[in-house]
Design brief:
143 residues; alpha+beta; GMP Synthetase, Chain A, domain 3; 5-stranded mixed sheet; two-stranded antiparallel sheet; 5 helices; 7 strands; 34% helix
Length: 143
C-alpha cells in the first residue's frame, strides 16, 4: 500500500496487473517518487519478435531495451492502461530495465515473486535519477 499526497491510499498491484496483461511486458513494479512510476521488464521473446517484424536491429536484451521504438511501444501500453485508471493511479513515467529480473540477484524470491522494495531501491534509489535502467520516459515524450 502506498500513501499518496492528500492522504489517498494506493495498491500498486492493481496497476501492475493491468500492465502485465500487455504481451510485451513481462514484469513491472509501480512505486511513488513525486509521481507514480513504473520499472518495467520487457518480455524479451515477444519484443524481439516485434523488433524483427519491424526491422529493428538489436544484439542483446540491454540493447533492445534502449531502442526508442521499444520505448514508444511500451509507452502505448502504459497510456492504454492509464485511460482506465483513476487520476491518482495513472503512471506518470516509466523505466525499462536493461536486464531480466533474477532470483540469483535477489530481485525475485526462489518461487519467482518480486522483491518489490529491493528492486525499487536497486534500480531507482532515493536521491538518484537512475541506476542500471534505460532512460526515463515521461508519457508524452522523452525527458
Amino acid at each position: 500500500m502506498i500513501s499518496l499526497p492528500k492522504g489517498k491510499k494506493f495498491f500498486p498491484p492493481s496497476v501492475e496487473d493491468k500492465l502485465r496483461f500487455n504481451r510485451y511486458i513481462k514484469d513491472v513494479v509501480v512505486f511513488w517518487r513525486n509521481s507514480l512510476m513504473a520499472l518495467i521488464q520487457l518480455d524479451f521473446e515477444a519484443v524481439s519478435k516485434w523488433a524483427e517484424r519491424n526491422n529493428i536491429p538489436y544484439s542483446t536484451f540491454a540493447d533492445l531495451s534502449q531502442k526508442s521504438q521499444v520505448y514508444e511501444l511500451i509507452g502505448q501500453a502504459v497510456q492504454e492502461v492509464n485511460q482506465i485508471l483513476p487520476e491518482e493511479a495513472k503512471v506518470a513515467g516509466y523505466f525499462l530495465l536493461s536486464k531480466p529480473l533474477s532470483a540469483d540477484e535477489s530481485e525475485l524470491t526462489r518461487s519467482g515473486k518480486l522483491r518489490r522494495d529491493f528492486i525499487i531501491e536497486k534500480y531507482y534509489p532515493r536521491g538518484k535519477k537512475d541506476n542500471q535502467v534505460s532512460h526515463k520516459e515521461k508519457l508524452g515524450g522523452p525527458e
